[in-house]
Amino acid sequence: MPNLEQIKRELKKYNFAYEENVLPVHTNGHYFLYGFYEKGIAIFALRPDWTIEEGALLPWGDVLSLKVKKSLLFENRMDILTPKMNISMKIMKSTGGCSWIKENLKKLENLNYYQNLSFAFGGAKKADDNCAASRAGQKKAQERENTTEIVEKIYRKMTEYTAAPMVSFELEEGNAGLFDCKIGGAYYVPEGEHRLENSRTGEELYLLAQVNFAQIPHLPDYPEQGVMQILISSEDMYGCNFDDGYDQTGWCIRYYETLPERAEKACIHEPDWHEDTALPMERAVTYRLKPTKIVQTMPFDDVNFWPAADTCLDSELRGYLENDDVMDGLCDMYEEYMCQVGGYPFFTQSDPRSADDGEILLFQLNSVKDIMWGDAGVANFFIDREALKNRDFSHVMYNWDCY
Description:
It holds the Pfam family DUF1963. This protein has helices at residues 4-13, 99-109, 127-162, 305-312, 315-320, 324-333, 385-389; strands at 22-27, 30-37, 40-46, 52-59, 65-70, 76-81, 86-91, 164-173, 182-183, 187-188, 206-212, 227-232, 251-256, 268-269, 287-296, 339-342, 359-366, 378-384, 397-401.
């Protein structure tokens, strides 16, 4: 992440001042600074160390449209259209210099053309232009009101049809007990069994997450007791076989329905960490998981969203799903959960399941706090509902994706 003082120093070299109007963004793996000024948009390409490699000014006269809209994921999104290019990028919300975009976000979401943007950047308008802009603003306001009503109606219908209970976890710092719900740390190995290993390399596996079902609100078809352990490999893909998500060669899942009242020392395994250990979290990371039961509505990136929409929405409402403003509004209605059991999954790319395979979300862990899946990704584990009812965890799909 860029350092704010470093940004100021770099901009000063190019005679640009930092006035809370500089926005760090990234697109296609490259990072830039975008500065908004009266003359136009200053674009600075950055090196990996956040020093400026080169810069250019895009005059407002060359800007056909500038759109900023909220994303379903972690970041806002900005699109700039000119006669020669179409730039689409993600806004890095966690970096310095974003107060300008936050203050102007609502204005920019609803203004498509530069001649309607000048007041947002302090420009002047003629009286006639102001009247025209006022009429256009009233029309836009009415369109937004209508869109809001449509979005709320679609969301209400989808909730009535797809509402599903799930347990969301808040990650709390501090030590967790051997059998507690947690991320990372030591794990229980039954007496007479050995540490869990990557069956291809022989390297030991590391505890990603543990869920004690007796400690969380009960969900239909999920266990009411016992401990589920998910362990992964220390390697680039964290043990995931993207060609066969069911392959548990480089990871594994264990479920122990009954637990001893107290584990002997020999039954507690603390994996060894080395310089080349590569996991989504650091060695010192262990979080307790604090559960809350929530009812969740199916999001539209779920593979079953469109079949569900065909069933519960009439033809008029289904037609609105082709409207970008309606879909953006639906994005804003959904809440993103960092860690959960049950409910509906979240993806940075796409759902790996088929609509007719009947698999449901067993566990999900997002990039949160000190946990990072690639470039701000998320990991999902899916299981067939009948297998879950039978407590059969031998055929679980493991997948993770990132930006």
